[in-house]
Write a structure and sequence with these properties.
With about 375 residues, the protein is an alpha/beta fold. It contains twelve helices and 15 strands. The strands form two sheets. Strands 3-5-4-11-12-13-10-14 form an eight-stranded mixed beta sheet. Strands 1, 2, 6, 7, 8, 9 and 15 form a seven-stranded mixed beta sheet that branches. The protein starts with a strand and ends with a helix. Bound molecules: flavin-adenine dinucleotide (FAD). Flavin-adenine dinucleotide binds next to helix 1, strand 2, strand 14 and helix 9.
Length: about 375
């Protein structure tokens, strides 16, 4: 079987790429072992700014329809609300996000339910070997296999572990103990004390539930995580003693998901006819919320800009592939993601007066911004006659 493009991996990046390329009329096949993307604790909300990039792929409307939209974010520091800011975000379980996008893949794109076990260069074409032994030949392989390292390793790529267990993400639901609803639809709650190794807690609506993502800088074996699994409500109350002032009494509802993230980049990636996107190219820190932006940017630049150029002339030499990795928009997005990951960690793990000073500075800045915005909106509501 011979195709122009084979996409390996039907997570967020691969499903989007297959959809955009299929809609553009390219002969593309998507390969993934799962007919439907299974439940997976990954990205659970998308910000409006990221939606703007998603719009360029033509997929934003279907994602928005499947998500729970909120348009205002409360921000709390040291147990006090310091801002109530207009901020659009869209909450949705990762599997729903991926399966919604898969639902948009045109019927002309075959989806093969299989594992790719090897990719073999074959002149101007690549042979993609499936677990059943069948080979598909393609001019271009888009490798969107996420964190699965085997294929990249077999191609001689090198993985640099930039920061092992850089952060830990916990996912759970939160419900008011007395029933009813919280006074907010979305809240970002920052740490109350130095030394807790916490980035922030984000609460946002996902269907009828209030979903919580807690980002920590701790070891996966830390006693705190063990305690949280055993007594989640009491342990969260001890970590954030003033959260009740804003949220009232609450209960943590399971199941509790705990997921560590290593930051890595892959070197020696340039190969004729093979291009890496999404987490397969570099993992983001979930606390920065830049993973989906990286995926959307990769898909937009690769499928809307580079692949149409590449297919217009014969061959798929490494110079073509390099143009994608050198793309200034992609490079800026990747660099920003890495910088944010290190900045947020440095801000969060500090101790003593330096930590206090940085966080109080942010407290004052945010409070000031809110006050100025409130005064301006009062001024607009009552213009001087
Ligand atoms: C806990 C957590 C929370 C996160 N929160 C956020 C957030 O709030 N905001 C944000 O922007 N980002 C967040 N991220 C990051 C974001 O989820 C990822 O960057 C994004 O999901 C990467 O998508 P992907 O398509 O590259 O990888 P994946 O979704 O992992 O897809 C990889 C696919 O490849 C398939 N595959 C693998 N090997 C093979 C093979 N050999 N043959 C065929 N198929 C194969 C797999 O089955 C899978 O379907 C979070 C990540 C985690 C872990």
């Amino acid at each position: 079987m011979r195709d122009q493009i084979v996409v390996v991996g039907g997570g967020l990046a691969g499903s989007m790429a297959a959809c955009v390329l299929g809609r553009a009329g390219h002969a593309v096949t998507l390969i993934d072992p799962h007919e439907t993307y299974p439940p997976d604790f990954r990205c659970e909300k998308i910000e409006a700014g990221h939606m703007d990039v998603l719009r360029r792929t033509g997929l934003a409307e279907s994602v928005i329809q499947a998500a729970t939209h909120t348009d205002r974010l409360w921000i709390a520091r040291f147990g006090r609300v310091v801002d109530k800011t207009p901020f659009e975000q869209y909450g949705m379980a990762y599997e729903r996000l991926v399966n919604t996008i898969r639902g948009q893949i045109p019927v002309c794109v075959p989806i093969r339910r299989s594992w790719v076990t090897a990719i073999e260069p074959d002149g101007d074409h690549q042979r993609v070997i499936l677990s059943e032994g069948e080979a598909i030949t393609a001019r271009l392989v888009v490798l969107a296999c996420g964190l699965n390292w085997t294929l990249r390793e077999s191609l001689g790529m090198v993985r640099d572990l930039v920061s092992p267990c850089h952060s830990i993400t916990l996912g759970f639901d939160l419900a008011p103990r007395a029933g009813g609803a919280f006074p907010f639809n979305a809240l970002q709650y920052n740490p109350e004390r130095a030394g807790d190794g916490m980035a922030y807690l984000t609460l946002f609506r996902m269907d009828a539930a209030m979903r919580a993502n807690l980002f920590l800088y701790q070891s996966l074996k830390s006693p705190w995580i063990r305690e949280f699994r055993a007594n989640p409500t009491e342990t969260l109350e001890r970590l954030l003693p003033s959260l009740q002032r804003i949220a009232g009494d609450y209960d943590v509802l399971g199941p509790i998901k705990v997921r560590p993230t290593d930051l890595h980049v892959v070197r020696n990636v340039e190969r004729s006819g093979i291009v890496l996107i999404g987490d397969a190219f570099a993992t983001p820190c979930p606390a920065t919320g830049t993973g989906t932006l990286k995926v959307f940017t990769d898909v937009d630049r690769l499928c809307n800009v580079h692949i149409p150029n590449w297919l217009a002339t014969p061959g798929m030499r490494v110079e073509k592939i390099r143009a994608f990795y050198d793309d200034p928009v992609k490079r800026a997005c990747d660099a920003d993601s890495v910088a944010r990951a290190h900045r947020l960690r440095a801000l969060s793990v500090g101790e003593g007066p330096a930590w206090q000073a940085r966080h109080w500075l942010r407290f004052v800045a945010r409070r000031l911004r809110w006050t100025i915005r409130s005064l301006l909106s009062i001024g607009r509501a009552h213009p001087a006659s």
